[in-house]
Write a structure and sequence with these properties.
Structural class: alpha/beta
Shape: globular
Radius of gyration: 17 Å
Strand order of the largest sheet: 1-9-8-5-2-3
Bound molecules: the ligand O=C1O[C@H](COP(=O)(O)O)[C@@H](O)[C@H](O)[C@H]1O
Distance between the termini: 18 Å
Largest sheet: 6 strands, parallel
CATH architecture: 3-Layer(aba) Sandwich
Number of domains: 1
CATH class: Alpha Beta
Strand content: 15-25%
Number of strands: 9
Length: about 270
């Protein structure tokens, strides 16, 4: 069978953030159920920024096998883990510290390497390799779910518009020292990781994201970092937005994209 093209993004919008938070929680729980049934564990990558607060719907959920979760961070700021800029800290405060995921299954950067970004990103990549390499031919880690945010300039992870890392095809984790959004020093997943996940979901809320959401979804030819997220088949990309953020986005194809995604999930025993 010829390789399938990436599926169109599946777009969901909600009248308010609390409905978005509930629906996102159901989506994550379903993804973990599917992953644990098929692979015996659930590999999840989290972002910082506004995402952690939108994960609160997961706290106290029934039927979650927390001991099977393996957590990574899509990008991390080069600061100690207890620093207010740390993405781990943001996720831990809002979500991770409220659920019983074993600490050794939460994969954080090695704080002893903060002065050497090359080593720091290499070490984080090795953590990915040790979790994923045994099961796949090690070309790419295939996450069950990657949760992303969209910055006001269209960045995601620490992949910024016009940055050379948008073209990275080899490394799984890269570093940058010139992030336009502080802090300047960061490490980040690259597209080879993001675009091989089974499921990727963006979470965006608020009218300050309206124009950028429209640009990312309706002008993909601009090549904004979020528009470049197109997981290879059988992977799927989802958007969870509130109505304020979704106001200018063209959602006329939403039902067809949802139908195609369901078809792909039913046809592919791995997802
Ligand atoms: O700096 C970052 O920004 C993005 C987007 O953040 P948001 O607050 O606009 O949602 C975030 O996804 C990324 O993890 C973070 O390091």
């Amino acid at each position: 069978m010829p390789p399938q093209p990436p599926a169109p993004p599946v777009f969901y919008s909600f009248p308010d953030t609390s409905k978005l938070v509930d629906s996102l929680a159901n989506f994550v729980v379903k993804a973990q159920k599917d992953a644990i049934e098929k692979r015996g564990k659930f590999t999840l990558a989290l972002s910082g920024g506004s995402l952690p607060n939108n994960l609160k719907g997961l706290i106290g959920q029934e039927g979650v096998q927390w001991d099977k979760w393996e957590i990574f961070f899509c990008d991390e700021r080069v600061v100690p883990l207890d620093h207010e800029d740390s993405n781990f800290r943001a996720c831990n405060d809002a979500f991770l510290s409220h659920v019983p995921i074993p600490r050794e299954q939460i994969h954080t950067i090695d704080e002893s390497l903060l002065d050497d970004l090359d080593e720091l990103s290499d070490e984080y990549e090795k953590q990915l390799i040790s979790l994923f390499a045994e099961k796949n031919a090690a070309r790419f880690p295939v996450f069950d779910l990657i949760l992303l945010g969209m910055g006001p300039d269209g960045h995601t992870c620490s992949l910024f518009p016009g940055h050379e890392l948008l073209l990275e095809t080899d490394r799984w984790v890269a570093y940058l020292e010139d992030s336009p959004k502080p802090p300047a020093k960061r490490i980040t997943f690259t597209y080879p990781v993001i675009n091989h996940a089974y499921r990727v979901a963006f979470v965006v809320a608020g009218d300050s994201k309206q124009d950028m959401l429209h640009a990312v979804l309706d002008q993909p030819e601009e090549g904004l970092p979020c528009s470049r997220v197109r997981p290879a088949a059988p992977g799927l990309v989802f958007w969870f937005a509130d109505d304020a953020a979704a106001k200018k986005a063209n959602t006329s194809d939403a039902e067809e994209a949802q139908r195609l995604a369901k078809e792909r999930i039913n046809a592919n025993s791995a997802i």
